[in-house]
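Practice problem 4.
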C-alpha cells in the first residue's frame, strides 16, 4: 500500500516519533524496528523512512511475513535459478533482489518461524545471499524495516522469537505511541480525515458538535488511527448530516465510555487480579505489570518509562524497590 499523506499530529509523543523518523531515515542504519499497536501507523512510518532516505528513488518492497507460507520462504526471499535438475523454467529473482538498493519492509516479523528468522539474521549480518540452485553468493544493499504489534521481548521469553535477532533489531527502534497517548491528536486527525472524505465523497461536512471532542479525548481507541479513520468514513457513508453528531457514534463506543471501561482496560484487569488474591497482593502485582509494560515499551529506559507513567525517575525507582523489582 502507498500512503500519500504526511504523519499528522502535534502531540509531544508524535513529534518525537517524527524527529526519530527523520534521523533514522538519513542514517546509515540497515535494520530498523518499528513497534506499535494495531493501526498506529507502522505502515505509514515505514514508508516515510524510505521516502526521506537516500534510497527514495529505489524500490520500497512491502512484505507481510504472515502471508508467506513457511516452506516458501527461501523461494520468495532468495529466488531460484532456472534449474537443470529442478523443474524451474524461469529464473525467479526473489524479494531480496527486487529490493536491492532500496528498502524491504517486513511487516509482522514475529510471524517468521525460527529457521526463517535465522536466515534473516544471516542476511542482516553478511549482506549477501544465495539463490536456490546457485553456487554463488550475491551481495545486496538493503535497509530492512521490521514491524510488529507484539512486545518482542515477551516473544523472546516465550521462545517464539530469536534472542539474537531481537538484539540485532533493537539497535535502532521506533516506538509509535497509541492514539490515546497523543493528547488532542485524535481531533487533529479527525479534522484531516473529514477534509479527505469531503473530497472523496463530494460532501461538505463541517466539523462536529462540541461533545464529540470530549468523546474522542476520552475513548480508548484500541484500533488507534485506523479505528478513527474507519469510524469517520462509516459516518460519511451512512449519515447525511453536514456535521458529525453524537448520535452518529456507535453505541459500542458510548457504552464503553459510560462504563468507564476505557480508563481501566477491564479485560486485563480481571485477568491480573484473579479471584482469590489479597487486596495487597493484587494491587502490587498490578503495579509490577504496569511498570514492566512501560519499561518494555521504552526498551528498559527508566526515565522514559517514568515519563510514560507520569512519575519522576526517582519516584519510579522508589516504587520498583518497594515492589522488589530489580
Ligand atoms: N499520524 C498519522 N497521520 C495520518 N494518518 C495516519 C497516522 N497514523 C496512521 N494513519 C493512517 O491510519 C491508517 C492505519 O495506519 P497503518 O496502516 O500504517 O497502521 P499499522 O500500524 O500498520 O496497523 P496494523 O498493525 O494493523 O498493520 C492508515 O490509513 C494511515 O494512513
Ligand atoms: Mg500495517
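Answer key:
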Amino acid at each position: 500500500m502507498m500512503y500519500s499523506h504526511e504523519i499528522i499530529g502535534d502531540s509531544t509523543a508524535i513529534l518525537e516519533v517524527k524527529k526519530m523518523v527523520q534521523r533514522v531515515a538519513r542514517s546509515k542504519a540497515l535494520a530498523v524496528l518499528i513497534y506499535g499497536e494495531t493501526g498506529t501507523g507502522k505502515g505509514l512510518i515505514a514508508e516515510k523512512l524510505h521516502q526521506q532516505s537516500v534510497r527514495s528513488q529505489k524500490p520500497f518492497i512491502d512484505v507481510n511475513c504472515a502471508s508467506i507460507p513457511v516452506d516458501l520462504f527461501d523461494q520468495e526471499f532468495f529466488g531460484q535459478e532456472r534449474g537443470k535438475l529442478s523443474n524451474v523454467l524461469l529464473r525467479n529473482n526473489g524479494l531480496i533482489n527486487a529490493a536491492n538498493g532500496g528498502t524491504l519492509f517486513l511487516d509482522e516479523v514475529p510471524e517468521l518461524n525460527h529457521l526463517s528468522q535465522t536466515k534473516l539474521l544471516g542476511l542482516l549480518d553478511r549482506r549477501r545471499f544465495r539463490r536456490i540452485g546457485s553456487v554463488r553468493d550475491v551481495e545486496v544493499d538493503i535497509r530492512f524495516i521490521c514491524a510488529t504489534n507484539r512486545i518482542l521481548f515477551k516473544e523472546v521469553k516465550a521462545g517464539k522469537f530469536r534472542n539474537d535477532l531481537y538484539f540485532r533489531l533493537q539497535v535502532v527502534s521506533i516506538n509509535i505511541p497509541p492514539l490515546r497517548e497523543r493528547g488532542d491528536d485524535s481531533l487533529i486527525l479527525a479534522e484531516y480525515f473529514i477534509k479527505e472524505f469531503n473530497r472523496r465523497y463530494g460532501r461538505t461536512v463541517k466539523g462536529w458538535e462540541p461533545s464529540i471532542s470530549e468523546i474522542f479525548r476520552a475513548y480508548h481507541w484500541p484500533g488507534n488511527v485506523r479505528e478513527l479513520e474507519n469510524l469517520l468514513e462509516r459516518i460519511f457513508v451512512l449519515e447525511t448530516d453536514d456535521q458529525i453528531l453524537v448520535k452518529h457514534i456507535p453505541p459500542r463506543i458510548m457504552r464503553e465510555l459510560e462504563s468507564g471501561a476505557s480508563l481501566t482496560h477491564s479485560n486485563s484487569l480481571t485477568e491480573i487480579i484473579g479471584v482469590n488474591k489479597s487486596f495487597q497482593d493484587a494491587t502490587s502485582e498490578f503495579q509490577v505489570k504496569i511498570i514492566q509494560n512501560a519499561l518494555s515499551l521504552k526498551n528498559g529506559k527508566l526515565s522514559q518509562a517514568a515519563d510514560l507513567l507520569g512519575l519522576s525517575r526517582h519516584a519510579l525507582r522508589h516504587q520498583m524497590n518497594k515492589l522488589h523489582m530489580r
